[in-house]
């Protein structure tokens, strides 16, 4: 009981928690959003939201970079902090710019923003390629 009420965190539990966070949110983003956008690239390239006025296709390509390429690296734990930056920027734009245009809830984007910002701050943890390489 004493351990259950403790605010201390062991290094092992921290590393397991970071692993679960990385893999869970990374795979959710990759499977539910990234791969779907990749499969429907031709359909989306001319109508994709463009909140930063870069053009529909360049915006879609930047989102694909964040949601597919960077997410795979985050799940593996390779260059995790660097790869989390584009994902955090992607979801900051979604939460603060794109969702203003729509009346729907912004919870999904906010969850991903919080998760990947936490990963950016905490790093990959011991159970990752970066951790195995001693970075």
UniProtKB/TrEMBL annotation:
Entry keyword set: Cell membrane, Membrane, Transmembrane, Transmembrane helix
Subcellular location: Cell membrane
Origin superkingdom: Bacteria
Pfam families: DoxX
InterPro entries on file: DoxX, DoxX-like_oxidoreductase
Topological category with respect to the lipid bilayer: Multi-pass membrane protein
Chain ranges passing through the membrane: 12-35, 55-76, 83-102, 108-129
GO (cellular component) term, any one: plasma membrane
Keyword Cell inner membrane annotated: no
Recorded family membership: Belongs to the DoxX family.
Listed name of the protein: DoxX family protein
Lineage: Bacteria, Pseudomonadati, Bacteroidota, Chitinophagia, Chitinophagales
């Amino acid at each position: 009981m004493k351990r259950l009420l403790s605010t201390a965190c062991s290094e092992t539990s921290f590393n397991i928690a970071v692993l679960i966070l990385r893999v869970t949110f990374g795979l959710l983003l990759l499977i539910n959003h990234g791969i779907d956008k990749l499969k429907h690239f031709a359909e989306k390239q001319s109508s994709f939201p463009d909140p930063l006025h870069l053009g529909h296709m360049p915006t879609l390509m930047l989102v694909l970079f964040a949601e597919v390429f960077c997410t795979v690296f985050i799940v593996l734990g390779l260059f995790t902090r660097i790869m989390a930056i584009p994902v955090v920027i992607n979801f900051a734009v979604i939460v603060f710019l794109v969702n203003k245009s729509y009346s729907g809830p912004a919870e999904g984007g906010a969850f991903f923003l919080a998760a990947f910002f936490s990963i950016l701050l905490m790093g990959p943890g011991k159970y990752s390629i970066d951790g195995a390489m001693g970075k």
